[in-house]
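#struct-pred
JK: can someone run the complex with flavin-adenine dinucleotide? inputs below
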Amino acid sequence: MGPKRWRSLHPARLARGLATAVEAQGALLFEQTRATTVVPGDAERGSRPSIRTWRGDVTADAVIVATEGYTSLLEGRHRDVVPLYSLMIATEPLGDEVLGAVGGSSGVTFTDGRHLLVYGQRTADGRFAFGGRGAPYHFASRISPDFDRLASVHDALARTLVELFPAVRKAAVTHRWGGCLGVHRDWHPSVRFDRRSGLGIAGGYAGDGVSTTNLAGRTLADLVLGEDSDLTTLCWVGHRSPRWEPEPLRFAGVNAGLIAMSAADRAEQRSGRPSRLASAFGRLTGG
Ligand SMILES: Cc1cc2nc3c(=O)[nH]c(=O)nc-3n(C[C@H](O)[C@H](O)[C@H](O)COP(=O)(O)OP(=O)(O)OC[C@H]3O[C@@H](n4cnc5c(N)ncnc54)[C@H](O)[C@@H]3O)c2cc1C
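RT: done, structure tokens with the ligand placed:
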């Protein structure tokens, strides 16, 4: 299958723009304030939901948990979401000759049909930004900035980029980074709000959250305000995914899935036929 292409936006600028927009509306943002526990309210008994943080408690009419891959660090939510890592590289700015050989234009994104996802785009300053899966899941859903950089995965990404675009083989890789994203047990994102407890949650975007968060935010606004709308009837509203297995099953299962997807890609590349291993794992994981 040939590469698919889409247009992109700059997610860091989107986040900064959103922060500026909500502050202009009077919202207060508190950074560097880690929430540890989310406590449900009980509308029938007149108690409101609250959040315990390292710096104090916050009580509100509605509390929304939007911690995505980090949700597993909250008390009592260790098995709700698995943090999977996606890693990226960027090349140096490419000369006109290389850009001419590569074709396309900046901002156009691409991927292909492999099971262990890769994705990329040419940036406005003429680099390739290219990323993919393949980093291991860490026991007990651990998350650390150390996991954002893994030489073996970054090197594999550089090799894959050259396979897709041989003209970039001499380009230096100047940036390497990564981060975690949230995956539900059935790979199904969801948005929920429970009026009695005052708690809402959105997430499980499995790496596709840059625009989906916007839909989730607008949907949550309608749910919290009690407004029936087209958004509140969407199929992900109220969806409940099963919890992930306890450790060590979770560790074994998630990493076996990653290894199987990688093996399936190699087998398909050799044989040119769909991998049975991939379809067997797809049935098991819901992916
Ligand atoms: C390398 C990489 C590439 C990606 N590429 C794409 C892409 O091309 N397209 C796409 O759609 N998506 C992509 N994603 C996924 C996308 O970034 C996420 O789906 C999206 O950011 C989810 O938004 P969010 O606001 O729900 O969660 P996040 O952006 O993860 O934000 C969660 C926030 O919660 C805060 N937080 C977490 N725990 C706590 C706590 N206990 N207390 C207080 N605050 C807390 C965090 O600091 C963070 O600010 C990529 C992700 C990675 C890592």
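RT: quick notes.
The pocket of flavin-adenine dinucleotide is lined by residues 34-35, 66-70, 73-74, 86, 88, 119, 131, 178-179, 181, 203, 205, 207-211, 213 (CB under 6 Å).
The mean pLDDT is 93.
JK: thanks, will look after standup
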